[in-house]
User: Fold this.
Amino acid sequence: MQRVAIIGGGAAGFFSALSVKEHHPDAQVTIFEKSKKVLAKVKISGGGRCNVTNGTRSISELSKAYPRGGKHLKKLFKLFNTSHTMEWFESRGVPLMTQEDNCVFPVSQDSQSIIDCFLNEARRLGISIEINNGITAIKQDGEAIILSHKQGDQVFDKVIVATGGSPKMSGLEWLQALGHEIVTPVPSLFTFNMPKESITELMGIVVEQTMTSIQGHKLVSDGPLLITHWGMSGPSILKLSAFGARLLADKHYSFNVQVNWVNEKNHEVVRDELKTIQREHPKKLMANYRPAMLPSRLWLYFLGKCDTSPDKKWEDFGKHGMNRLVSILTNDVYQVKGKTTFKEEFVTAGGVSLGSINMKTMESKVLKHLYFAGEVMDIDAITGGYNFQGAWTTGFVAGKLQ
Assistant:
């Protein structure tokens, strides 16, 4: 009988434990969680609703949602992907629903449904859960691994590390000490602070289709953008922060963001649309007839940036103003000074280097019989259920104990 330890009682830890029992029914499995609660991040994720996965069925598209680790996950998704995740939960009494944006939630709209499912499965399969009992040391003894905790030393045949992302290097030093290469963690998925920009006075406005980029770099993102009282957020900004995590850390979060408010790269197409309005509605006040279904308050803000009175008629709008407006709609620039991260749901870029792991099995290349799952590795994703899918997939594969 194999003795298997799971270090970490989060999403990846539980899914690893359940996968071990699926593939090795006779294994004795113990989850060690250093805090008083298991699945804490699952509880608060998605505003307490838990965005368990994404509705994307294409493995190629799915892998593109991971700024780090996507190429390796592309192969693993053939073993366990979003379709498998949905089938897994629904076959265990958790019906799911897919939103228009492809985010998948439990029909209950309550993360407790996911937590209860995991706890019930763990109970049914006889998995031991040790809360408030973190691992303090780990060492190899021949074919076995010895784990130290406050109750003493325990010997295990296999160990899966699923401790989650660590925002600080200090949280990964114990794995570095074993010989694993560590990629220094930096924040991913953060919003942009704009303390000097007046656009923050328009907080609450959402523009559904935008393109955003970092000035001077090729990184481009798209999607809805939310104006907040501190700056900008929304999927377009969060995706940009994820793919630019290291670049923006190197810039100490001081940079310019470019916003294309109409999601159209061709300036002439935008100019033609404005000229069409001017030609077809010459007597309309500019305040009352706006392009691209832009929110009214935002449109008035743009007119102000053009030094154009909202009471001006479209027929009186000159060439200079037109050029300025086209520039604002397609290439508006804002100064970013700092970031805001969601501390409870933090996502980090960094962790155990994938070069230290056999990515076919999740086994460490440094320590035999030691495996990894979830965000403790240098794997992270954009918003939309992708980070949880990474946990389910790597946990499933690690639990095979190949």
